[in-house]
Amino acid sequence: MTDSKKDEKQNLQEELGNAAEKLEKFVKPIFNAIVIVLPFLIKYVQVLYTFYSKLPDDIAAMLIGLIFCFFGGLYPTLFAALQAARLSGWDSLVGALKNLNQEIQVILEADKKDSLKDEDGDGIADVNELDSKEFFERKTKLVLTKINPTKVDDALSTIYKVWLGVAAALAIKFARTISLALSLADAINKPVMKYAGPFLEKAVPKEYSRWIPVVVAWITKSIGMSIAWYIQTIISAFTSAIQGGLMTARAMLKFCAKRGIKLGGFIPEDHNETLIDETIGYTLAALGFFFQFKVGFDITFPFNIPLMPFEMAETWLRWQITSDDD
Predict the structure, then answer these.
(1) pTM above 0.85, yes or no
(2) Cα–Cα distance between 33 and 53 in angstroms, integer?
């Protein structure tokens, strides 16, 4: 091995060592943040699922229709993923998530007890006296000893199988959007590297210069995705508003017919015998699209707080299916 290659290898090892030392500082706060946030997220999902599962079919259809009508353009990928998951093994997915939730609860309970231990009797919890490396090793051991590996492996395998079906469905459904995003990213990346690249190379320390093309590619890809998905959002808002409006109207008529609500003969037993469902549906569709247009196809404060999990899931799904086709 030549001296230059030895030096390059030594520099790389030093960089990795420095990066590892910096990452160790974030181990404790990241783990603590996960322990705090995860129970709330699990509870949030459980409440939504319990509420939905107890609804009668016609009321559930009305609720889903209203969500599609007023929010379909805001979360098109998420809603499409849920529809695809229903066709790719919904029951097995729900079972896998329940099993994972049980294991997570076991770990959280064990962590709660572990965080209170004071075996040396100095009045300070043992975990608060550990450095980042010792803390990571202790929590890793706790997870590995408390978790049921077979149960977790089966659950993750099921989730992955369902995800493969969902990802394939999303890639087909949003193929044009993905293609547009990647084309825009490529078109933006070339002039940015040509004109801004030389300035960035001077501004960035030499040892980090090889990261410039990678970071620029990430940024331009984000810009391309933002433009392409904004166009898709408008299209999805329009189509989902019509779909959701009609779904809601027909579910309302079905609800009234089941309960003998006629309103003086205004509501028929079969929606195919009248144009009332279309009239109500298209009116709701106009209101739904106008609402999404008015909010700029994005949820603002304070509604973005309870809908944050949906925002995060939508962003992740968009990035995931676009990255897979890169």
Answers:
(1) no
(2) 30
